[in-house]
Automatic annotation (TrEMBL):
The lineage of its organism: Bacteria, Pseudomonadati, Pseudomonadota, Alphaproteobacteria, Hyphomicrobiales. Keywords: Membrane, Transmembrane, Transmembrane helix. The chain crosses the membrane at residues 262-283. This is Uncharacterized protein. It comes from Bradyrhizobium betae.
Length: 293
């Protein structure tokens, strides 16, 4: 199994796609979805989002926004659901990525999802077919790639996929079959209805830098770092308050009561435990960003 570098994943997905064909029994379903995504009024949402990103210095083809929205939010003709995870964009999201929003409109939610949320599609540079499939794969996770099995998120509906699916987190069922049209099949279908669905031949580096930028890492770890900081400050303040209780009042304290109280030690202990847990969370989230980068 190749190492899960961007270059290795792009090459592997390109090779699988080169041999993949749409299964005849899936053709009707694929055409329905592809035609809908290319319908002018629907397409306008995606081209506008692509243009918005372009004005901000990013480059994401409209059709990649379209298939991502289809996979994450379904048909959703009124565009009420976020491209990030399918939750309503006018509410705080409850699915991963959690805690996003609420937003003013679908485009604002899409900007947030593509720029600030993993896998940071707006910061992807390789728009060959292999590159497009790889950044899409990162949306769904790298479990299939590291396991060395076809990814239904990409290839369901094609001859590259027959069975095997994660039925819940970390639980892979080799007999389960995805009923969702995969991204490769959607893109092939869209090419029938829209001549602008064209992929680059320029196999450039997938990311602008080898490591994720500091601002992305900071954003991903912000909540955990805030918890760590608050725990440290709270532990110090709590211990000081408990210590003050032994040195105030009208009765002269005995030497024993001048020692830090048991309560003070408890406050410090809880704060240290929270700080340790938060530090571990920071490290894990940093590693997750680096892995998805």
């Amino acid at each position: 199994m190749p190492k899960a570098t961007n270059a290795a994943m792009i090459a592997a997905n390109e090779a699988v796609f080169a041999k993949a064909q749409i299964r005849p029994e899936w053709q009707g379903r694929i055409d329905v979805a592809a035609r809908r995504l290319c319908e002018p009024k629907t397409k306008a949402w995606f081209t506008e989002e692509s243009a918005r990103l372009k004005r901000k210095g990013y480059d994401v083809p409209w059709f990649m926004i379209a298939v991502t929205k289809e996979m994450e939010a379904g048909p959703d003709p009124q565009f009420l659901r976020s491209i990030a995870q399918g939750d309503r964009w006018d509410r705080i999201s409850v699915n991963v990525p959690k805690g996003r929003g609420p937003f003013d409109d679908w485009h604002e939610a899409a900007d947030d999802a593509l720029i600030k949320c993993a896998p940071y599609m707006a910061l992807w540079k390789n728009w060959t077919m292999g590159g497009a499939l790889t950044i899409s794969m990162k949306y769904n996770g790298l479990g299939y790639f590291t396991k060395g099995v076809p990814n239904p998120y990409l290839f369901s509906g094609t001859t590259a996929y027959s069975s095997g699916k994660y039925v819940r987190d970390s639980v892979f069922d080799p007999q389960a079959v995805s009923a969702q049209v995969g991204i490769a099949a959607l893109l092939l279908g869209m090419q029938k209805f829209d001549a602008s669905v064209v992929f680059s031949n320029d196999n450039v580096d997938a990311r602008p830098s080898a490591a994720p930028p500091k601002d992305i890492v900071d954003e991903a770890t912000k909540a955990a770092r805030n918890v760590r900081t608050a725990a440290g400050a709270g532990g110090i303040a709590g211990a000081a308050n408990e210590g003050a209780k032994t040195t105030t009042g009208t009765v002269v304290p005995s030497p024993a009561t001048l020692l830090p109280s048991l309560a003070a030690y408890s406050v410090i202990g809880v704060a240290v435990a929270v700080m340790i847990a938060a530090t571990i969370t920071v490290a894990r989230r940093k590693a997750a960003v680096e892995a998805i980068w």
